[in-house]
Write the structure tokens for this entry.
Amino acid sequence: MMQTLDDMTAHGTQTADETLGGGISSALVYDEGGADGVLLGDTLVKLAEHMAHALECSECCIYEYLPERNALRTQALWSRVLRARDVDWVGEMHQLDEVPGFERVVKDREVLCSYPDDEADKATAGFETMEYWGELATIWAPIVYGDRVLGMLELTEKEHERRFSPADERLAEQMAALAGVALHNAKLSRAASEHNRQLTALIHAARAMTSTLDLDELLQVVCRQAARALDAAASYIYSYDADADALVWLAEYQADPSHATEALGTVYPVDDLPHDQTVVRARQAVEVRVDDPDIDAGALARMQAWGEQSSLVVPLAVGGTLVGALAVSETAYPRHFTEQETALCVALGEQAAVAIHNAELYRRLQEQKETIGLQATVDGLTGLANHRHFWDRLRDEVARAQRYDQPLSLLMLDLDDFKRVNDRFGHLVGDELLRGMGHALRSQVRQGVDCAARYGGEEFAVILPSTRSAPPGGSVDGAVATAERIRAAVAALESPVGDPGWPGVTVSIGVATLPLHAETAEELVTRADQALYWAKARGKDTVAVYGCG
């Protein structure tokens, strides 16, 4: 986060060379937000100002060393004259291997001076670089606290030519030691803030994970909370398939939604990647980085394809049973996750595993309830509505038809000579015939509108909302037309046993319609049953309408 201090004003769209502010009060600071960060930033800027005055330089810059990124970050800048290009410099990352002088200061702890007329083989900054920044002399000194290098101090003269003396170099070292105390305090404060942030994130994650029992929603919550808790670019959740010994990708969170990955549901055999084996077999957290010289080729290829620089993977286990894995990834640089961050991710994984386990149990319970509910309304042999559900549905449809003044027809069906099939071929063949009857009925009724049911034994019923009887040869949408299609479908049923002596099967159907033939559900069943009796009396394998016998 960029912040301006003292009399600094926003630079808007000014050019790189345009002056943004003048006088000793012009300064910028880079910090990571919060009141403590602003206070520390202000301290660093004031320190930079005092250092510039002490060495009589026009500018002073303080860099923080980030060992996990092998880089220096411009943390604070004070200048007598600040330009737009200076604004852009603050907060920038500078890789040590790209600036040899920086690497010598940080790694070898040298104090270096640089001038535009340095010989090429001795130059630390280079003529072109110093000319670009308008620098006439620069001195760099390592910022050390205890036995650790915390950063680098840069003092620059831009107004007149000068040469730094050995005394100047010693003074720069002494001032760098003061900066070391400030950066050390800044790191302590940042560590405390980070610890509090992580604890807060853990609490928020726990609340979020217990706020839903929907498994898909929970997986998204876990991914999002894990990435935010570790300030990472992405996170992923995998389930573990013990039979296949593979991880299956279930969910993801991307800070950048445009980031390309593979499809959800992708299966990753555990034996393909060594770090997956460690997570699954040893139940240990594993960090994988692209800059690791010993990284597995397959892991490197996958990380490069996903644009990842580092990844932390932790197991998800409940009561000793592995249920999956949680991965948190960084795309900006080969990040090293600290012990504290790893412990946080493990804690999140433990919470997530329990939450996912509970959500899966809940889903199974709901599926069982649905199955039980389905069994309470569906005939187990034919898959049609059972007798109880038939009556509930019929009464509902009668009430709806009367409310909206719509017709309602009912078919009552009976397989002809079904007892002889059972006697000759056995009850198992009879059961197969009943299953075939259920399939025939489902194939001839309107899905989601009509209701086909097994009324009892070899008797069936079909409820036809908003349907009139219509005489034979009438509308193809009438109840009689539907009955004829069903009769033909039943007659076409093949032998369940393949016996050449199979006599075939036929069905008799009775039709009644409300309000033409009945006013109540009970009357409608009675009238349709009477019509069925007439169909049987006519020789079977026919359709009869109540009142037309």
Notes: Residues 46 and 358 are 55 Å apart (CA to CA). Residues 1-16, 22-28, 30-37 have pLDDT under 50 and may be disordered.
